[in-house]
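hey can u check if this looks right to u? its 141 residues, i copy pasted from the old doc so theres a chance i mangled smth
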Amino acid sequence: MKTIEQWFSEYGESHQNKTNKLIHWICVPAILFSIVGIIWAFSPIAAWVLMAVTMLFYFKLSFKLSLAMILIFAASAALSQALGAYVLEASIGIFVVAWIFQFVGHKVEGKKPSFFDDLKFLLIGPLWCLGFLFRKLNISY
């Protein structure tokens, strides 16, 4: 299994452009929330199960980043719950708009999204954003 640094290095290869990075720092968390929200709309239990399974992958990579992801997943679940009957429509809207921006960012970057090479990069994106934040705050991960 790759280390977190290997994942970040490979992910970073197609995320060098300042505009693309900014888009990702906004849209990756939005997409993460929207996925939780879409699943939540059908079954909160299924959403919790999916988050728990994802955490198994994250814990293998970084304990500290995983702890932060628990908070992000909990916030996504709380927001999904708070949106009530509107969670599905809101989540689908966020999902579509955020992905449009992601592809615009990659067009600006001139490189295809990493997940075209390995679907696990869809799980790495949120950690990559957190890794940036951890480095800015001088927190090891």
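The chain has a mean pLDDT of 96.
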